[in-house]
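User: Hey, quick favor. My workstation is busy. Could you predict this chain's structure for me?
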Amino acid sequence: CDHHSVDFNAIDFVFNEHRVPAEQSPDEMQMEDGDEIDAILYDQSRRIVLKVAGQ
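Assistant: No problem, here it is.
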C-alpha cells in the first residue's frame, strides 16, 4: 500500500467470495499454497492479486 500510495482502509481483501477480516490468519481460512486473496480498491481503477507462497 505504501509503495502505491494507497490508503489501506480503501481496500477490501476477499478470499473464496468472502471478505477477509484483518485478524484472520491463512490457517484459520484454510488456505493452501497457491490460493489467492483479491485486494479490491473501490475508489480506484486497480486490482491487485496477492499470492500465498506458504503458511
